[in-house]
Amino acid sequence: MHTKKTRSWYLGHVSTGFMWFVLIAACVLVLIPLAFMFTASAMPARDILRLPYPWIPKGFYWPNFWNGIKGPEDDFIFFRNALNSLIVAGSVAFFTVVLSAITGYGLAKFKFKGRNLVFMLIMATMMIPFEAIMIPLYMVVMRMGLQDTYAGLILPFLANAFGVFLMRQYLITFPDEILDAARIDGAGEIRIFSSIVLPSSGPAIATLAILAFRSQWDSLLWPLLVVQSDEMKTIPLYITRYMAETHSDEGIMMAVAVLASLPMIVLFLTLSKYFVSKEGLTSATKG
């Protein structure tokens, strides 16, 4: 009996240690490129190419960031391009969350004929790659006169099948008793949705907002088709332009990459608390 307990204790600790080893190894593999980017942004180009690579910079090399912001033509267009990316990514993230939450709530909590068919048709659109509809979508934008505008960058991406799927699956588990109690108290569907359902959907909304924001913040192909003027370009187009004109200075490129990564890092750190938060459901129950 003692031998069995010892063996189970030993196997439990070995499995736990192995899991920790895998997690630490995965974290290291993810963090090494980020560490290289941040440390290289603080070095002159000659130090970045040294072997072995000096992971600790001797000092902070500010000219990398200054030249990255100034741009290859000294026009400081970086700020306008960063603002364009914030407007486009923020607008898409906001409307994606709102429209996906409304659609997901309707599909999860309202019973109507053809509900499953509607959901399956929405899911079927996920099987179509963007490259297959890119040219027809571009022609529609051209016919509507939306080329080189914010509307041309934002409107094609407001509907998100994955967002509908995520919100529907999350809201299916929402207690129907809370909704019925609110209806008995005289609350309308809009009041129920805005005051009860949305506040309790923090983890799903935070996840969807981050994914929608990131997809547009990193988008290169669609802005490359729609945008012509330098004033309407986004951060990915700014980076590609900088790579084409100053490809030999690795320090400046790493500094530009750091500047382009900061909004995503700030957004993730801001919304990450909602991933494990239960405050939304608690407040909705109290309400």
Count of DSSP strands: 0
- Described by the principal axes of the CA atoms, the overall outline is flat
CATH architecture of the largest domain: Orthogonal Bundle
| Whole-number mean pLDDT | 82
The description of the largest β-sheet is: none
* Number of individual domains: 2
Task: Give the % helix.
Answer: over 70%
- Taking all Cα atoms into account, the compactness measure Rg is 24 Å
Fraction of residues in β-strands: under 5%
Named CATH topology of the largest domain: MetI-like fold
- Strand and helix order: HHHHHHHHHHHHHHH
Specify the CATH homologous superfamily of the largest domain. Answer: MetI-like
Low-confidence stretches: 278-287
Span from first to last CA?
54 Å
- Using the coordinates above, name the CATH class of the largest domain: Mainly Alpha
Task: Report on the architecture of this protein.
With 287 residues, the protein is mainly α. It folds into two domains: 2-67; 72-286, Orthogonal Bundle (MetI-like fold). 72% of the residues lie in helices and 0% in strands. It is built from 15 helices and no strands. It has helices at 2-41, 45-48, 63-70, 78-109, 115-124, 130-143, 150-154, 161-172, 176-184, 189-197, 202-217, 221-226, 235-245, 250-271, 279-286. The chain starts with a helix and ends with a helix. The model is unreliable at 278-287 (pLDDT under 50).
